[in-house]
Write a structure and sequence with these properties.
Strands 1, 2, 3, 4, 5, 6, 7, 8 and 9 form a nine-stranded parallel sheet that branches. The chain is built from eleven helices and nine strands. 41% of the residues lie in helices and 14% in strands. It starts with a strand and ends in a 5-residue tail after the last strand. It is an alpha/beta fold. The protein has a single domain, classed as TIM Barrel (Alpha-Beta Barrel), CATH 3.20.20.370.
Length: 272
């Protein structure tokens, strides 16, 4: 019996080279879909390039609260107009150093730009550096999508058990504690379990992690990835660079196609 899994690429819209690589993989049928960062000047062009694939590919919103310019400008979230590092976000939000209204305003702005660019609701929502698991974002999700109609799916918590990345998975799982259960009770569809977490500073680890997912990820499980091509824009915006080329090459390869066939696995498309 054929087993179907989801492959979702993060960071569409981060840089033109990243977007081009993701579009290429979508055209090849090597991805289920992608989640979009809408806060950059290139977003209108990136959205126009994505529009023809909407419906066939799952197109989501990649909520971004760290390390990039804030659409809403200066606020308690971004005192100098730039979103904070992850380590400077979670605790200040919990302790009241960052006003929840400023966080929600930034998320509203990113969501509105998604709608403006693609003329449609996101199929799903996830978060850059997993920020969608934070309580302040859970609250925004419940408020923004209070009506069941048009409610997007959400990326769920990671699967435990991979000893090679156990500390990283455990840290993410701790932030995500209760997310699947509570958001499921709020009638959101949850994409779970999440696989694809590895130390991207070691690009050679991507192919084995992908193969493990092909071999063992359950029906409709989700594998996240970060393929793309390096360009000057990416170099200026994000430290995750050369590994994106490695992920692209693996996903585009004949070897990956053969591994899917051997395991009797298919990549779901955005209509499922």
């Amino acid at each position: 019996m054929t087993r179907r899994i989801r492959l979702i690429a993060d960071d569409y819209g981060l840089a033109p080279g990243v977007s081009t690589g993701i579009l290429d993989l979508l055209d090849r049928g090597r991805l289920t879909g992608t989640s979009c960062m809408t806060g950059f000047p290139e977003w209108p062009d990136a959205a126009a390039r994505m529009k023809p694939l909407c419906g066939r590919a799952a197109v989501g919103l990649h909520l971004t609260l760290t390390d990039q310019p804030a659409i809403t400008g200066q606020s308690s979230l971004a005192p100098e107009g730039r979103l904070p590092p992850l380590r400077s976000l979670a605790l200040p939000v919990l302790r009241g150093g960052i006003d929840h209204r400023d966080v929600h305003a930034e998320l509203d702005a990113q969501y509105d730009r998604f709608i403006e660019g693609l003329d449609r609701q996101p199929d799903f929502i996830d978060g850059h550096q997993h920020v969608h698991f934070l309580p302040v974002v859970r609250k925004w999700l419940r408020a923004r999508f209070s009506e069941a109609a048009g409610r997007p799916a959400l990326r769920g918590a990671p699967a435990l058990g991979n000893a090679a990345v156990a500390p990283k998975v455990a840290a993410i799982a701790a932030v995500a504690a209760g997310f699947n259960r509570s958001m499921g009770r709020a009638s959101f569809t949850i994409f779970e379990p999440l696989a694809g977490i590895y130390d991207w500073r070691h690009p050679e680890r991507f192919a084995p992690v992908l193969q493990a997912a092909v071999d063992a990820l359950p029906e409709r499980g989700l594998f996240m990835c970060h393929p793309g091509h390096v360009d000057e824009t990416l170099r200026a915006r994000d430290p995750m660079q050369g590994v994106r080329e490695v992920e692209f090459a693996v996903l585009a390869s004949d070897a990956f196609a053969a591994s899917l066939a051997r395991a009797n696995v298919e990549i779901m498309d955005g209509r499922e």
